[in-house]
Design goal:
By secondary structure, the chain is mainly alpha-helical. It has one domain.
Amino acid sequence: MEMLHINALVNAAIFALLGILLFAAGFIVIDKMTPYALWKEIVEEKNLALAVMVGCMSIGMCIIIAAAVH
């Protein structure tokens, strides 16, 4: 069994943090580009179609970020 390399662990943590920050920044940009507040529409107005659209957008952004970071 190989020993755990601390450099690999630190690199994984940095890349995970970078991916989360990029995702949050992308979500904020898309939220600002829409004419309404996404979170308010989904939570308060119970807009299911918008929730599905934002979920698909989030998965798409995460796939792109994962490929770029990897």
